[in-house]
Specification:
The chain is mainly alpha-helical. It is about 65% helix and about 0% strand. The protein has helices at about 15-45, 60-65, 65-80, 80-90, 100-110, 120-125. The two termini are about 35 Å apart.
Length: about 120
């Protein structure tokens, strides 16, 4: 679903942009850990008689969780600039190039970023 854009200040200093990408990295890492724990708990709840259960999670699958894709889209909408443009370009790629869950999350990026507050906009003009 496409969300309404929010009014948020654009990160205008190099430090603010670094902080924004740092927040994204921490969020993705925490999301990956949360997905690993969720999968581990769900495996323990299932019957142990499954002979195909190898006990180890695929790291690519953990990173490519729908929640992490949503975090990425949210960060791109918040960061704007070149990061937003990259997300918008990725959103129009063939589904063979990017996972369908990522394409779905990036639809929001293509639909629009957070809007700049009027005070910041007039200050830039």
């Amino acid at each position: 679903s496409i969300r309404k854009s929010r009014v948020r200040s654009v990160p205008s200093s190099p430090m603010a942009r670094v902080f924004g990408f740092g927040q994204l990295a921490v969020g993705l890492a925490m999301g990956t850990v949360a997905e690993a724990l969720r999968q581990r708990v769900s495996k323990e709840v299932k019957s142990n008689s499954d002979s195909n259960n190898k006990g180890s999670s695929n790291m690519k699958h953990l990173i490519n969780s729908e929640a992490n894709f949503e975090r990425l889209a949210e960060a791109l909408c918040r960061m704007r600039g070149a990061a937003l443009k990259l997300g918008q370009m990725l959103s129009i790629q063939d589904e063979n190039l990017i996972p369908p869950q990522l394409a779905k999350a990036l639809e929001r990026v293509r639909a629009g970023a957070d809007t700049m507050p009027h005070k910041q906009l007039f200050g830039q003009l």
